[in-house]
Design brief:
2 domains, alpha+beta, binds fe (ii) ion, seven-stranded antiparallel beta sheet
Length: 262
């Protein structure tokens, strides 16, 4: 990582500690140049931008949204054609959606320019998604990251920070859309979010970006801990400045993540 990138992360961490310093940063910072956003109307995307926006603002995440079966099928066909890399960048590996045999490592990222998949590219540029991202971020967004990844069960059930509660500081403000590409029940590594931890953070939260399950149980009422189970093709929006985690799965899980940022 370059010195400038490291310095940028330090600055973001400093400015996001307090909500008032974050507000100042948001006023000063203009969106970086990113991929040109060309709004696309997709007939299968019919969730309500206003409703979703309100939910994210209030809770830090939205209710479930979905893409069509046709779009899901095309994305899945695409994932069968690309290479996946493990977190430590091992040899590229093909993972077949219909029969996902567990490779040696448990976490595998799609190693490709994901936007080459037309159905993903259309979703990233979807007019409703762009409306939600623009209004939530308060500025014209950039596409910060688009990725898919497979999570597989692992023998070692000890605490692994890859599956522990944390909040992200990817930018001064950012918004993610997650779409499950496999059915996700409680045993398939559902994403878990703690409601309403995206806006203000108390002293403890400011200085503890990572929390163990035990700390979460002790600090938050059960009704604030949301386990996001859903069918393949369903997903949600989330400001991952809120505490969240991906649960260690007992069954393989494939997910798409689109990240908008200022
Ligand atoms: Fe995260």
């Amino acid at each position: 990582m370059s010195i400038i990138a490291k310095l940028n992360i330090k600055l973001m961490r400093t400015f996001t500690i307090f909500s008032w310093t974050r507000k100042i940063a948001l006023k000063i910072i203009t969106s970086k140049k990113g991929l040109e956003l060309k709004s696309i109307d997709n007939s299968d995307i019919n969730y309500n931008a206003q409703k979703i926006l309100k939910e994210i603002e209030e809770n830090g995440f939205s209710s479930l949204v979905n893409i069509s079966h046709e779009r899901l099928k095309k994305i899945l066909d695409y994932t069968n054609t690309i290479d996946f890399l493990s977190v430590d960048n091992n040899i590229p590996f093909k993972i077949n959606y219909d029969n996902p045999i567990k490779p040696e490592k448990s976490l595998w990222y799609g190693n490709s320019d994901i936007l080459r998949c037309k159905e993903i590219n259309e979703l990233v540029h979807d007019s409703t998604n762009l409306e939600i991202a623009t209004k939530y971020l308060g500025k014209t967004p950039i596409i910060k990251d688009v990725r898919i990844w497979w999570s597989f069960p692992q023998e070692n059930k000890e605490y692994n920070h890859l599956y522990g509660f944390h909040y992200d500081i990817d930018s001064y403000k950012f918004l993610k859309q997650f779409i499950y590409l496999t059915d996700v029940d409680e045993k398939s590594g559902p994403h878990v979010i703690i409601s309403n931890t995206h806006k203000k953070k108390n002293f403890f939260e400011k200085y503890n970006r990572r929390l163990t399950d035990k700390q979460v149980e002790q600090r938050y009422n059960k009704d604030r801990i949301n386990i996001m189970t859903a069918k393949a093709g369903e997903g949600f929006f989330e400001d991952t400045f809120a505490y969240h985690k991906g649960t260690l799965p007992e069954k393989p899980r494939l997910i798409l993540q689109i990240e908008y940022s200022i």
